[in-house]
Every structure is written in structure tokens, then in C-alpha cells.
Amino acid sequence: MASKTAKKQVYLFPQGNKDMKDLLGGKGANLAEMSNLGLPVPPGFTITTEACMQFLKQKRMPAGVMDGVRAAMKQVEKETGKGFGDPKNPLLVSVRSGAKMSMPGMMDTILNLGLNDQTLQGMIKLTRNERFAYDAYRRFIMMFSSVALHLERSNFDKMMDAMKKKRGVKQDTELTAADLKALVAQFKAFFKAKMKRDFPTDPMEQLETAITAVFGSWNIKRAVDYRNQYHIPHDLGTAVNVQTMVFGNMGNDSGTGVAFTRDVATGEKMTYGEFLMNAQGEDVVAGVRTPIKIAKMKTQSPRIYKEFVTLATRIEKHYRDAMDIEFTIERGTLYILQCRVGKRTARAAVRIAVEMVGEKLISKAEAVMRVEPDQINQLLLPDFDPKEKERAEKEGRLLAKGLNASPGAASGAAVFTADKAAELGLGGEGRAVVLVRPETTPDDVHGMFASKGILTARGGATSHAAVVARGLGLPCVAGCEAIRVDEEKGRLSADGKVLKEGEAISIDGATGEVFAGLIPTIEPNLTKEKELTTLLGWADKIRRLEVWANADYPRDAIRARSFGAQGIGLCRTEHMFMETERLPIVQRMILAKTSEERTKALDELLPFQRSDFIGVLKAMDGLPVVIRLIDPPLHEFLPNHDELLVEVTELECRSPKSPKLKKARAMLAEVEGMREMNPMLGLRGCRLSIVMPEIVEMQTRAIIEAACECEKKKVDVHVKIMIPLVGHINELRLIRQRLEPVAKRVMKEKGVKVDYKFGTMIEIPRAALTADEVATEAEFFSFGTNDLTQTCFGFSRDDAEGKFLLKYVEDKILPDNPFQTLDQKGVGKLMETAVKLGRKTRPKLELGICGEHGGDPRSVEFCHRLGLDYVSCSPFRVPIARLAAAQAVVQDKVAKSDSR
Ligand code: ADP
Ligand code: MG
Ligand code: MG
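A: This is the predicted complex of the input protein with magnesium ion.
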């Protein structure tokens, strides 16, 4: 048990500093820092977060706190020359909550505490302003009653409104001293009726009540909900700041405001903000009167403006960051009441970081740390023009809201089939189209390519539409249940409205919103993002990890390269099988009864695959390309079982003798024969290649032929053939033994030597645990962390995310969705083991990750610490990963110097 005297519970401002946020809260720590800088901060003190937590545990004011408060108050009285409760020269204070991070739900500020009928007289005499004094008094009674004692504020507002009506005035400021005096009496009477006691007159009692209320506000529902949502611990507590009042409502040489040292939206260096003449703090927030822009102050009160800019610059220089500053002017004297690091948009964050390096305020490494990697996504995706979006909202064009499946905004003509999209969209007539489907399947991919965005009525964040859209960097709203799609008639209905084919529709994949009509978008352009390119350039110099991209098509590869990818970490070959003209050949190949039949179909597929690979290899000239051999179970290339069953049943009734029925029956039999209870754990990956080696032999031939042809054209090729789903060394050995001769044979035929390697995915726990053996046959490892997570947890991702995983995260059974952020303890342990064992066998073993985690900043940091050579992610996340990889290095250095 802590002894009563051991812990200091109350700190005068000069006793703290900005690094004491845990104990003094953000507001208190910065008030302390500014006091020590000699800035004009009204004197005061802070009661610690520890005292708050103690209060919440004991459910009463902890011993010693009020003694500390009284002692601190003595000091403040000394410094201000005023007395708390002294009728001749009264000290009034504000009571302000302040947790470590700013948090909505915490208690509102109480101003003018210390007023009673006696001190009021003192105020009147001192200021010779009766109106001002009564205004302060009525505010205090109202705030104290509503904020600290939870009497509905609206009761007081009603009395105010009635008074204004009676006097025939609109503004609070038009009420006279006598009006306000009458209101004070009414407020007190109301208080007495409700609380069955007089309004407290003892200032110290007022203060204790207010402190108690701030402590208690830590646990009100709104605050608890907020902390849950943002993963903020519940045991931090809030500090309480008690501070001498200064008055912005003393006339037209007084006022109050908030300013930012740089423009929050653009990051431009300028004093930016708003202020209100003749007002107290709460008026700005309440929006009773419209504040004016700080820039206006320049002409209205140039002296104060200059003083403010000087102070703001000093604060910014001291904190070396863009700051958010609250200030009040009392009769021409400026006071600073709060400062904190200002919140900003992604664009502003980047610009501020880069410009502060130019101003020699921060180092390049610091600049790299100043931007959240996930934030820069915003700069790389199209976004609605904010004014146009606002207009659409005002015009009531918001149709529905679905799942925000892939960020970015898109606007264009609605089309309801993939073929129509291909006809009208990119590669066709070149119009902007948005593909609207009940849901998408691999058959729709060509239409998705041609579209600006995808909207589906069904399916979640891992539906086909969502996954493909994210890979392509296309905006996507999925699972928008409120819309009904009628593809036959070519229209959709939602919210009582109907949109026909060709009519404009707009979707925001970051928010899930769907609008009728066109909303112009602002297109991103990395090369035009000068500041971002500069910042990423610094990141590149710092980071050790390489950043590669997952790209299946040449156009993805080109884009990935333009985003700074240093290789392709995963080129999936099966998407190529799905395309309309190829699928029938693929099906023939699968259904073949003899090896010759199969080989014949494969011979037809070979030129397709070869030309795909040539495209990708050319695009990546000089850089490594990892091509994964076929991975999914074959049934994915055949018609859906249930749909076939329906077709057969229908045909049996309608035309039992038709040849169509015969064909459908045969297909059904095939599909049934291939059915698996659990395809995820069934015949796929290397297992399939062992049972049916012809496919991977063809693929290897296509890869090496493509490589030879590229080499002939002076393209610098480094190709790596990746064998998926290996669990046992013998699987890998067997396949490699079959494929190595194919590669050699092709090179001999073509008379060209190419740089190629064979390696494997590590995505089955057994492979990770026996990585020393696996490495004898694998020249590289790539962690397939999606499957590795599935097999490590024993989750099937689609079932888990649909049924229980989100609940797991909500109820904190798991800290995060392990498919989004790598589970470092479990899956990470497998990776660590594989790294260690693999490098034991083969010290130069090349190691990478190609799961979706490769683009998740926290997972990137982990990969850095594991010592991987590269991370590979979606092209659109390449810049994010570049930044995250650099941050990992900087953090590493900080951690190392801390432990020294
Ligand atoms: P929040 O945490 O919501 O920003 P604050 O504690 O900063 O609340 O208080 C809100 C406003 O109240 C301040 O911006 C300031 O205008 C006013 N205020 C607080 N304390 C004082 C004070 N001692 N003198 C004058 N105004 C104050
Ligand atoms: Mg504030
Ligand atoms: Mg896999």
C-alpha cells in the first residue's frame, strides 16, 4: 500500500514539464512546459491522474489531495495577489479536465469558480463593470450546475431565452446588468428547487465538488466507449487543472480564440484559426456567435496580432511541431491557455514534416516518423471534391451506405454487367463507368479492369469484389444491402429511387457511401506529390527492408514500379486461367481423361501464360520477379456445384432428352467427384502438382521460355519459381526434381541462360518447424502469412471473419484481426523459427513475406526485426510499406539507445 505522504498529488504549473503527460495529462503537462518557458500562462496547478485513479478505487477523495489543493492555492494567491473567496480582491479559477490524450466525453470546463454573492461585489468594484460580473456569475452557476451536478443545461438556456424574449433582444450581449442579475436569482431558485439545498457559496466546497466531478467523468459511458474504440487503456485516469481566470468578456479589447501554427488542411505555414471578441471560452465552442478569422485580427488589433504570432512561433519552435493553441485576450493583454500538437490531414502532415526539415527544425529521420504510414494512402487515391460531395449531401443524393471495402472515390455511369463495363469503360469507349453487381465472380474481372469503381449488394470485406478491388487499387463499396440490383432490366433501386444503366453514380470506398449523380473526383498523382516523393526518398535512404509488390498483370507491375517497388514478390498465375477465352481450355484440361488430352489442352494454354509472363518480366526489367505456380483447388475453375445441380434438376423436368442435360450431368458428376469437405486443406498447392504434374511443367516451361525471349531482347531477367503449400521436404524435392529438367531443357532449346531459382512459400506450420530441411531444396522462402495464419490458428478466414472473428476483436479475445495485423506471438513465432532454421542450412537464403500483412505498418516493423530481406504488398501499399520500413529502423535505433 502506498503511504499517504509518499506521492505528490498536486503540482504547481512550474513543477511539471511536457514529458509528464502520464501524471499530469496532456493539458497539464503543456501548461507546465509553457509556464517554464516564461509564456503568459495564468498561474495554476494540476491534480494528478494517480489521484484520479485512487479516487475511483476508493470512491471518495483520497487523503491529502485537498490539503495539497489548499497549499497550491496559497501559492497561486501569492503570485496573483488575489484571494480565493476574498470579497475585496477575489481570485476566480477555471477547473479543467485533461487526460493523457484528448478524449471526447471528459468533463467540460467550469469557468469563474469562486464566485458567490460577496466575491461578486468585489468583482463589480474592481472592474467597475456590473454587467460583466453578473454575466460571469450566471455562467458559473449554469456551468457548475450542469457540468458538475448534472442538472440539464437546457433548463438554464430556457430561462435565458425567456429573458431575451421578454426584453425583445436576440443576442446574449444585449442583456443588461439588471437582466443578468434577475437571471442569477432565477438560476439559484431553480437550483434550490431541484437540489433541495442552496447553491454552494464556499469557494473551497465549490472547488472540491468540481474536482470530484472531473475524476468521476473518467468513467462516464461516452468516455469508456471512446477508449474502447481507440484501444486506450482504462487505467490512465484524468488530471484536473485549476487555473486563474482571465477574462475575454471584458469588452471590445478582449476576446478568446483558437489557432494553429500551420494550415491544418494543406500544411501551409501560416497562423490559422478563429477568434471571438468580447467572449468567454465556451462561446466559441457553443457556436452562439460566429467567430472571425485570425487574419482579420491583423487589421483589427495589429499589436495583439503581432504579439500572438511571435508567441505562436516561439511555441512551435520549442515543440518543433505544428501546434494548436488556445488563447484569451483580457483588456489588450494576451494569455495562452493551452497548446498541443495539432491534428492534421495526411497532406498537411507530409508538407509540415518536409518543410520543417527545410527550416532545420527537425531531422530527416524525425520527419519520417511524423507521418502515419496508413495516412498517406489518402494521397494516392482519388477523392471526391469536398465541396461537390457536400453539395450532393445537401441535395439528398445519398442513396445508401455499404461496407467500405476498398478506399478511394469513383464516379461514372452505372453499368450492370462486366461485358457492358468492358464495352463502355477503359479499353473500350474509354468512359468512366462504375460496375454495379449483386456480387462479383472471376467472370467479372475483365469488367472490373474497365471500371473506375465497384459496387456490390452482397458480400463482405473478403468477398471477391473487395479482394480484387483492393489488389487493383479500385474503390469498392461491397455488401450494400440497401440497393437492389436488377441486371436483366439494367437498373438498381435504393431509397425509393431508380438508376438506369448509363446514369451517373458515385461511390466512396473509404466511407461506404453511395450517391446518385456525378461527384467530380480529384485524381492522385505520385509524381506531382513533390513533398511525399521527398519524404519517401528520405525513407528509402533509411530503411533496410526492400519493398516489393504483389502483381499478377503487367499493368500492376508497371504501377508497382512507379510507386517504388523493387521487385515482384508474388505473381499469381491462376488469375490468368480465369479469363473468359482461357477458362474453357482450362476446364478441358481439368476434365481430361488421358494424359495426352490434358497435355493437348495445356499446350494451348502455354502461349497465353508465356505472353503474360513476358509482360511482367519486361515491366520489371532488372528486378526480381517471384512467380507462384498454381495454388487453388481445381474446382474453382469449374462451374459451381449447387448451380449445376439446379440446372440438371430443371432440365430433367423440362427437357429430359436434351443433349444439354447429358452434358450438364457429366459436368455435375465431375464436379461431384472433385468435391472436398474442406477445400482449403485439400487438394491444392504442391499437392495438386504432385497428383497432376503436367500443369506445373507447362507453367515452368512458359516461365523459362518467357525469360529466354526477354533475355534475347536484352531484358534483364531474375525470375524465381515459387512452389506453394509445402509442408514436408519430400513434396518440394519431388516437384523440383520434375521441374528442374524442364527449365534446363528449355534453356538448351533456346540457347539462352537465364537467372532462375526455385523456392517455396512458408505457409504451413510444419514447413516452418522443419525449415532447416526445407531450405536444402528451397533457394528462397516467402512467408504466405494468410495461409500461415489460417493454419496456425486453425481458422478458415472466410468462415472466421464472417462468423466470430470480429466478435473476438470486439470482446478483446484477440487484440487485432490476425489477418490484417500479423499475430507476432504465434504466427510470428513460426516465422522466427523458419528464419533461424532456414538460414542455418543456407546462410544467404533469401527471405520475404507476400501475405497481405506485407503492407501493414505494424507487421512491416516486425518483418524488419525478424531480419527478412523484403516485404511484398499490393502496389498501392508500396509507398506505405516504404515509410513503415524506414520507421522500423528509426524505432530500432531509439530502442537500442534507450537500453544502453
Ligand atoms: P477543452 O479540453 O474542451 O479544450 P479547456 O479546458 O481547454 O477545454 O477549456 C475550454 C476553454 O475555456 C478554453 O479554450 C478557454 O477559452 C476557456 N478557459 C479555460 N480556462 C480558462 C481560464 N483560466 N481563463 C479563461 N478562460 C479559460
Ligand atoms: Mg481546450
Ligand atoms: Mg497460400
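The pocket of adenosine-5'-diphosphate (ligand 1) is lined by residues 42, 94, 96, 109, 111, 243-246, 256, 281, 326, 328, 337-338 (CB under 6 Å). The mean pLDDT is 92.
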